[in-house]
Amino acid sequence: MRYYLFQILATMSENEIRKQIPLIYLNIWDSPVPYPLWNKSYYESCDMLLSISKQTLNVNKVVLGDVPYIDIDKEKIS
């Protein structure tokens, strides 16, 4: 079964795969210093970057800088 799934995924382009299986990353960053600037390219490559706390959200905002993103706030959704 896994080999069959691998064959299907190997023939599909990245865009076709991401339409059905988005890349989501939940990160936890406890310390604000140093900012993980080395993770910027990884954060940008994700379809959704989730933060577990306000501290992590602030760190993500600093690392992403001017990269456009959609901020989903729990209070706005309710």
In short:
The protein is 49% helix and 10% strand.
- Report the mean per-residue pLDDT as an integer: 79
What characterizes the major β-sheet?
Answer: 2 strands, parallel
Widest β-sheet, arrangement of strands: 1-2
How big a fraction of the residues is strand?
A: 5-15%
Number of DSSP E strands: 2
Provide the low-confidence segments as ranges. Answer: none
What's the helix-strand series?
HHEHEHH
Work out the helicity level.
40-55%
Could you please describe the fold and organization of this structure?
By secondary structure, the chain is mainly α. Helix content is 49%, strand content 10%. It contains five helices and two strands. A two-stranded parallel sheet has the order 1-2. The protein is elongated. The termini are far apart.
Using brief descriptors, characterize the structure shown.
78 residues, mainly alpha, 5 helices, elongated
Describe the secondary-structure layout.
Layout: H1 2-11, H2 14-20, E1 24-27, H3 40-45, E2 48-51, H4 54-64, H5 74-77
Parallel strand pairs: 1-2
